Amino acid sequence: MRKYTLWTTAVAGAVVLAGAVAVPFVVGSPSAVSAARTTAPSATSSASPAPAVPHVDAAALAALPEAQYSAVIGGLMPFDRTITSDTVFRLRADAPLFGAARTTPVARFAATDFLRQPTTVVGLRRDGDWELVLTPARQQLPSAAGGSAAAQTSAWVPVSSLREVATPTTRVVISTTDQTVSIVAADGASGSPAQRFRAGVGTADTPTPTGVTGYLEQRYVDPAQGTGEHPIQLTSLHSSAADEPYGGHDGGLIGLHWNATTSGAVSHGCVRLDAEAVAAINALPLGTLVTVE
Hints:
Layout (H helix, E strand, L loop, with lengths): L9 H11 L37 H6 L13 E2 L8 E5 L3 E4 L6 E5 L11 E7 L2 E6 L17 E6 L3 E3 L5 E6 L4 E6 L9 E4 L2 E2 L9 E9 L11 E7 L14 E6 L6 E3 L3 E3 L1 H8 L6 E4 L1
Parallel strand pairs: 9-18, 12-16, 15-17
Antiparallel strand pairs: 1-7, 2-5, 2-8, 3-4, 5-6, 6-7, 9-10, 10-11, 13-14, 13-18, 14-15
């Protein structure tokens, strides 16, 4: 099956237009985001106070590379972990992203994504005036990493740029060994999965990345791509083995989509599902965590 043709046609134009719009934004004040959000020390630092958020003016923000699906931004942090809880946000405006040092911005989140919809931001941990978030961009191409690049990245964003929305109550777990996709409780409660479906996964040469958690980034319908009227479910994960295993210019994205074949190691890394499974995933909110085991 052709992979995400939409990226290089209509959506590619939307990305260029979105990237061309510079939204003024100034960082420097504490956030008014929900006081219930728990503050926790950074895993990359000691128990010392979090650094102050640097001021980033509108011109400097607009000049930063956008952290979107096809970008490769070395200053981002690899995130090769599995997690079970998150907090979902929208952006108040374009926002700067920082690496581990949190001194100089390395990228920016655009307030709207490639479909001109509000960008979904998944937060993992609060540290003072900072939130550690997952990003949809790559930190390094597999060809530059010996064929083993991080499938997911993270960065720090100022809390003041975030607006909290409803947090998903379920998450998606993909088992490449069992070749299944399950929708389970987000809190990790034991017991049988709420729903479980058969799935086709990546081949040995183009594997679905494992041992990592991303999130449902966006979805769209494109019958020309062979999925009929079933929405393609895009995740923030990327192939860790090849730059563009499917051809084209989609950045090696990992998606969950309809296919007539829903078992075996058969794909370029994406997860193939039947109509019932696609409908179940499509009913989940954006920002839902997706763990691959």
